[in-house]
Design brief:
Strands 1-2-4-3 form a four-stranded antiparallel beta sheet. The chain is of the alpha+beta class. The longest helix is centred in the last third of the chain and has 37 residues, at 99-135. It has seven helices and four strands. α2 packs across α3 and α5 (86-95) runs antiparallel to α6. The protein has a domain at 9-118: Mlu1-box Binding Protein, DNA-binding Domain, CATH 3.10.260.
Length: 172
């Protein structure tokens, strides 16, 4: 019987050092183990985790993630977490063998595949838009620009969406 795995896995995959990774703290939560237990298992099997499978965040990366509220700024670990690439997450399945870890790993691998598919589709859409733009004149430039803007991820994800009444406006 499959165990429930959180549906927000896609949001737990981060882009660090030009690699898609998951943090050790998120993986520990998914596997339902303490982060220190996860890292003990990894360290006992350190030869299975080369640098392209796992790395520890630098202090500046860690502080940046904290400031983006990806990691709590209070409580929890006092040292930067580890980041596991897709290959590192796959290798975790050989280290953590509980049924929960197996089910979580299956869902994580499926999520990495979905993410690659989404990125490929976005790339294909961008290429098609470029081709269309070459066939139409300047009057459609604003339409193409608007479409590209919609395809580009927001640079300010913390900004609220919707209407704000006059006395509720953010002055920051």
């Amino acid at each position: 019987m499959a165990l429930p795995v959180p549906t927000d896995l896609l949001g737990r995959i981060l882009l660090l050092r030009e690699q898609r990774v998951m943090l050790s703290s998120d993986l520990a939560t998914l596997y339902e183990v303490e982060p220190r237990v996860l890292m003990q298992a990894v360290k006992r099997n350190s030869t299975r985790f080369p640098e392209d499978f796992m790395f520890q965040l630098r202090r500046d990366e860690w502080l940046n993630l904290k400031s983006q509220n990806v990691i709590s700024s209070w409580g929890g670990s006092r040292t930067p977490p580890y980041a596991f690439t897709e290959q590192g997450v796959a290798m975790l399945s050989s280290v953590l063998k509980s049924s929960r870890a197996v089910q979580a790993n299956i869902e994580i691998m499926r999520t990495f595949v979905r993410l690659r598919r989404i990125l490929a589709e976005n790339s294909d859409l961008s290429r098609r838009l470029d081709e269309l733009e070459q066939h139409y004149d300047e009057q459609f430039k604003s339409v193409f620009d608007a479409l590209r803007q919609l395809m580009t991820p927001s640079t300010n994800p913390g900004r609220p969406i919707g209407f704000i009444q006059g006395n509720q406006k953010d002055t920051s």
